[in-house]
Write a structure and sequence with these properties.
Distance between the termini: 30 Å
Number of strands: 32
Helix content: 25-40%
Bound molecules: 5'-O-[(S)-ethoxy(hydroxy)phosphoryl]adenosine
Largest sheet: 7 strands, mixed
Oligomer: single chain
Radius of gyration: 24 Å
Length: 653
């Protein structure tokens, strides 16, 4: 079986016979321990979500669970609340005041522990400072920071004021940051003098300076001192975070009561065409969706030490480091740096040191760990672990089984969680006390979630047949729109199958009802769990003066899952060379991010195009994967292709 979409052949059928029922001792204590939860939620999804919503603290109770005018949903209508109140204040009013909210370790080994009480104090101070800089309800704030406690503090300070924030991953370039600041029209930026990564200082402030030079909406920049690296501070615009907070003393800034549908944040993600999309998440539904999934999928208990290894710059960090866990009053581990610094056992050293009980990481990381070898985890006592999770891309069964054996010690259920920036919350995943897991399958939709697999005509496909994964019923944490672009929201997600959300992923369901994710069926790449649009990379390449045209495709990559291959035609006068290849790689790193740097670049005199001048990526993929060439009848000039294939094969051999 294969799925063929715009993107061509995605994956062959995988037969997996191994089954892992929930360990009885785990099932006996699990938060989700009654299989009837599925039937109950299915019979009354709104009732199910309303039950979850009752765990939040509301300033005004909601009157109506859902208003669904496809494709626009409103959840928990009439309610008012505040995200920060739910994540911090309400815990600080109980014994949790002295419970660790964040146990942080910097890459150099420095440590900080912030209790919920500490967090409340720091969030208040930051909110007061932001307020003094003129930030009000509805104003946008851009956050570009390393993985230090001030990052969640900044997010929670914004939410306290009702100011939607947009976190930009610290690995993004000044150009990418500029684009996101401009699109969100952010008024204040929060950054740091740098962060540590593999022993080096990553200079974030200099990137902010570049991103806001010339015309910008940014009026003030708050700078956290993390590394002490020399930076430029612009008089009247830039302020040190510690000075601004110290000037406020220990204030109490009231939590702004906001409507359930008030924007909480915008997070930019790559799409098939054009510039990155600002995915908008609102307050109540997002908090309900993330906290309910966090409680039931990660089985969070008061005494757990929970570690999600994602960077907060991605949605996983928003939903499962900050909001989900903090609504639940959990203890979070937060780590600043790289997994192989100073050595390849850093993660396992952290697990041993902090007695981590729940670990949530990505298949790409697991594949690196496999390659590094079992001696690294074997150096450490990891008996504290009781549950493992993965997210970001399909996990190969071999990596799954390695994770089970060498990290989980054969005792920890694994939750393979499928979701997206747009879904806000996990949508397909085992419930660890109930679900028999299968290596490589994300298993079943979460209670109340309706997922279907459709063919091109919109009909459900039979078992074990690939098709387009859609979500056929609204869910609380769903994106509400693309910031400032309702039309694109409708076109991108809701026009192929009216009333149903198009995920862009291919999937199949097996005879046991388990879902198998088959990867993207559009022009989105998933490189080491990071989403990149082929268009974005092509634009970056074409911005180099030597390049006339570029076509980018994904190729299989042992560690990253997908790598980036670029086919490039040059302008007259430019000559192909290894040096030019290197320049083009750097160009992509500079314009987007080092994550997007092409693994392979091929110079070609022409690109294969259809008669309507569309580049035939499918054929390029066939070439790159060494497959026989598919249908070439719509090509303007089939000879272009034969030549390309020959040259590619020469290079490869
Ligand atoms: C992929 C990350 C298979 C998928 C939370 C999706 C997965 C895209 C899984 C979203 C999984 C994520 N199994 N594929 N468990 N989790 N994906 O927006 O292609 O960065 O559409 O959100 O990652 O990536 P995003």
């Amino acid at each position: 079986m294969t799925v063929t979409g715009e993107a061509g052949t995605i994956s062959a059928l995988l037969k997996e016979e191994r089954r892992y029922p929930p360990p009885p001792e785990f099932a006996a204590q699990a938060n989700a321990n009654d299989p009837a939860i599925y039937a109950r939620a299915e019979a009354d999804p709104e009732g199910f979500w309303a039950e979850q919503a009752a765990r939040l603290d509301w300033f005004t109770p909601f009157q109506q669970v859902l208003e669904w005018k496809p494709p626009y949903a409103k959840w928990f209508l009439g309610g008012t609340l505040n995200a920060t109140y739910n994540c911090v204040d309400r815990h600080a009013k109980t014994w949790r005041r002295n419970k660790a909210a964040i146990i942080w370790e910097g890459e150099p080994g420095d440590e900080r522990v912030l209790t919920y009480g500490d967090l409340l104090r720091e969030v208040n101070r930051a909110a007061a400072a932001l307020k003094r800089l003129g930030v009000k309800k509805g104003d946008r704030v851009a956050i570009y920071m390393p993985m230090i406690p001030e990052l969640p503090i900044a997010m929670l300070a914004c939410a306290r004021l009702g100011a939607p924030f947009t976190v930009v991953f610290g690995g993004f370039s000044p150009d990418a940051l500029r684009e996101r600041i401009a699109d969100s029209a952010a008024k204040v930026a929060i950054t740091a003098d740098g962060g540590y990564r593999r022993g080096n200082v990553v200079g974030l402030k200099a990137n902010v300076d570049a991103a806001i030079s010339g015309e910008t909406t940014i009026e003030k920049v708050l700078v956290v001192r993390r590394t002490g690296a020399p930076i430029q501070m612009q008089e009247g615009r830039d302020l040190w975070w510690h000075e601004a907070l110290d000037a406020e003393g220990y204030p109490r800034v009231p939590c702004e009561p906001v409507d359930s549908e008030h924007p909480l944040y915008i997070l930019y993600t790559s799409g098939t065409t054009g510039k990155p999309k600002g995915v908008l998440h609102t307050t109540a539904g997002y908090l309900v969706g993330t906290s309910a999934t966090h409680r039931l999928i990660f089985d969070i208990k008061e005494e757990d030490v929970y570690w999600c290894t994602a960077d907060i710059g991605w949605v996983t960090g928003h939903s499962y480091i900050v909001f989900g866990p903090m609504v639940n009053g959990a203890t979070n581990i937060m780590y600043e740096g790289a997994p192989d610094w100073p050595d390849k056992d850093r993660f396992w050293a952290l697990v041993e040191k902090y007695r981590i009980t729940i670990l949530y990481t990505a298949p790409t990381a697991i594949r690196s760990f496999m390659r590094w070898g079992t001696e690294y985890p074997a150096r450490h006592d990891m008996s504290s672990l009781r549950l493992l999770g993965t997210v970001g891309e399909p996990i190969n069964p071999e990596a799954w089984v390695w994770y089970w054996e060498h990290i989980g010690g054969g005792r920890c259920p694994i939750v393979d969680t499928w979701w997206q920036t747009e879904t806000g919350q996990i949508m397909i995943s085992p419930l660890p006390g109930l679900t028999t897991t299968v290596p490589g399958s994300a298993t079943k939709p979460f209670p109340g979630v309706k997922a279907e697999i459709l063919d091109e005509a919109g009909n459900p496909v039979p078992d074990n047949t690939g098709g387009n994964l859609v979500l056929s019923r609204p869910w609380p944490a769903m994106m509400r729109t693309i910031w400032g672009d309702d039309e694109r929201y409708v076109r991108q997600y809701w026009s192929k199958y009216p009333g149903k959300y198009l995920t862009g992923d291919g999937a199949r369901r097996d005879e046991d009802g388990n879902f198998w994710l088959l990867g993207r069926v559009d022009d989105v790449l998933n490189v080491a769990g990071h989403r990149l649009g082929t268009m974005e990379i092509e634009s970056a390449l074409v911005s180099h003066p030597a390049v006339a045209e570029a076509a980018v495709i994904g190729i299989s990559h042992e560690i990253k899952g997908q790598g980036v291959a670029a086919f490039v035609t040059l302008r007259a006068g430019a000559t192909p060379s290894d040096q030019l290849k290197e320049e083009l790689r750097e160009q992509v790193a500079k314009v987007i991010s080092p994550i997007a740097r092409p693994d392979k670049i091929f110079f070609t005199a022409e690109l294969p195009k259809t008669r309507s001048a569309k580049i035939m990526r499918r054929l390029l993929r066939d070439i790159a994967e060494g497959r026989a060439l598919g249908d070439t009848t719509t090509l303007t000039d089939p000879a272009v292709l034969a030549e390309l294939k020959k040259r590619y094969e020469e290079k490869e051999s």
